[in-house]
Write a structure and sequence with these properties.
The protein is α/β, with parallel strands linked by helices and 498 residues long. It folds into two domains: 180 residues, 2-Layer Sandwich (amp nucleosidase, domain 1), CATH 3.30.1730; 296 residues, 3-Layer(aba) Sandwich (Rossmann fold), CATH 3.40.50.1580. It contains 13 helices and 15 strands. Helix 1 runs antiparallel to helix 2 and helix 9 packs across helix 12. The model has no long low-confidence stretch (mean pLDDT 90).
Length: 498
């Protein structure tokens, strides 16, 4: 497809987004039409190409209307640009980011066609199995007919502060390029079993299926019709509950609900199944069972980060390291000792991961309300302090002299395998984060996690712990994204997009 379409300037965010949507949809339709012809047996001689839309702004000022806000403005005068994708998912997000740019810098934004080609895999979308109906000849010809994903266009150099803007090149407007976003959208379907469009802005991660079972029970209850007017009103905030397989359970308490029942349950669960309690503005709650280990934690947060959520929390179990702790006590992480290894090349372990006040306060308030303990009495069921995260599930088998010294020096009060990874990736990708764990064993004090003890513990604690997490998300929603996206997460030479 020709790149000769001249870019146009816009002073209104809605109009600019409409132009972005038009360019994207036109280019994707062209690729899909060409692929249909290719799949039908017509193999062209020349490369078939189409390109992502690009947003660009040039400004002689670096001011901002509201200096409390941590995003929505460029750090210094100059020209900035980013490629964009999937307007069907990012409509509200793109419109808001453009609105803030215009509000802070005045003038106009420029929308045009970039020089970054759209890989055919991304144009066909996450629900298309590209190679299943192609002949061997077509599969062999595919790389010579259509652009393939190019890793040079989708690394994390911007987020990692490795990116260097060359002379004459526009500086980045966003943390992620369009191909990087598209890759993660495809991977999210693979890992979670649901389309990216169902993910909500408030994410809860857990490492136990017990929490997911309770979340499913709550989700089904909210979607079920009620004869009680007050209960119907309370439930009406949510439109649908979505399970792996894109199984949609529409809320029967809503009249004229745009969400409709559909999809099917998966016979075999994906690696990290996701469940979504949806609200019409995307401010619902998504819960993901990430399984065990820092590698899974990094993998899923690498991809969810492109959706620009407003907060993510870790609700899981941990080893209590203090003799004064009891099974079932809560741990609110105020600091992290990172021994997970998986992020060392992207974010050196010496870089501190700060606690975020809004998240910490919301978690503590939720614990108080759900448990009934307040003020000084809250110390009876919850401790705050350092959580150590490691990459070895059998850490108890190491020499006690070797491992206990570091845990003691760090003043760690709990140990797990995911929390610091999730917090560190939140810090790296500018996503507000927090951790509330529950003590399930005390290996240093002879209380090991054994099957019978674990089952009893889970039955008595899971429901309360999840209720704390859900209430925390409600409190964070009330705070609003402007306050949640803290300036603590932004560098001194930051991109404009949140």
């Amino acid at each position: 497809m020709s790149m000769n379409t001249r870019p146009k300037k816009y002073s209104d965010a809605e109009t600019a987004f409409t132009a972005i949507k038009g360019i994207y949809n036109t280019n994707v339709k062209y690729l899909r039409d060409q692929f249909d012809s290719f799949a039908g047996g017509k193999i062209p001689k020349d490369l078939v190409r189409a390109f992502y839309p690009e947003l660009r702004i040039s400004t002689a000022t670096a001011g901002r209307v509201d200096n409390r806000l941590s995003f929505g403005y460029v750090p210094k005068p100059g020209t900035y640009a980013t490629t964009l994708t999937r307007p069907d998912i990012f409509d509200h997000y793109y419109t808001e980011q453009i609105r803030l740019l215009l509000e802070n810098h005045g003038g106009k934004v420029e929308v045009g066609i970039s020089d970054t080609p759209i890989p055919i895999h991304f144009a066909l979308g996450e629900n298309f199995h590209l190679e299943q109906d192609l002949s061997r000849e077509q599969i062999n010809a595919l790389p010579y007919v259509f652009d393939q994903p190019n890793l040079d266009h989708m690394d994390d150099s911007i987020a990692n502060a490795y990116h260097v803007t060359r002379e004459g090149q526009a500086a980045p407007l966003a943390l992620f390029t369009a191909p990087r976003v598209d890759l993660s959208i495809m991977r999210l379907k693979h890992y979670s079993g649901t389309d990216a469009k169902h993910f909500q802005n408030y994410i809860i991660f857990t490492n136990y299926q017990f929490y997911i079972d309770e979340f499913i029970r709550i989700g089904h209850a909210i979607m079920s019709p009620s004869d009680n007017a007050d209960l119907r009103k309370e439930r009406s905030a949510y439109t649908a509950f979505v399970e792996p397989g894109n199984k949609i359970i529409a809320n029967q308490n809503l009249e004229n609900n745009k969400e409709k029942n559909g999809g099917q349950s998966m016979h075999r669960m994906p690696q990290m199944p996701a469940y979504h309690m949806k609200r019409p503005d995307g401010t619902g709650i998504t819960m993901v069972n990430i399984g065990v280990g820092p590698s899974n934690a990094k993998t899923i947060t690498d991809h969810i980060a492109v959706l620009r959520p407003h907060a993510w929390l870790m609700l899981g179990h941990c080893a209590g390291l203090r003799n004064s702790q009891a099974l079932g006590d809560y741990v609110l992480a105020h600091a992290y000792s990172r021994n997970d290894q998986v992020l060392d090349d992207d974010l050196h372990p010496s870089i501190p991961i700060p606690a975020l006040a809004e998240i910490q306060q919301a978690l503590e308030q939720a614990v108080e309300k759900v448990t009934g303990f307040e003020g000084y009495d809250l110390k009876k069921v919850m401790r705050t302090g350092t959580v150590a995260t490691i990459d070895d599930r059998n850490w108890e088998l190491r020499s006690s002299i070797r491992q206990n010294r570091r845990l003691s020096q760090s003043r760690a009060i709990a140990l797990d395998m995911e929390s610091a990874t999730i917090a560190a990736n939140g810090f790296r990708f500018r996503v507000p984060y927090g951790t509330l764990l529950c003590v399930s064993d005390k290996p240093l004090h002879g209380q090991l996690k054994l099957p019978g003890m674990a089952d009893s513990f889970y039955r008595t604690r899971v429901e309360q712990h999840l209720q704390i997490g859900l209430l925390t998300m409600a409190l964070l929603r009330d705070i609003g994204p402007e306050r949640l996206h803290s300036r603590k997460l932004r560098s001194f030479n930051e991109v404009a997009f949140q």
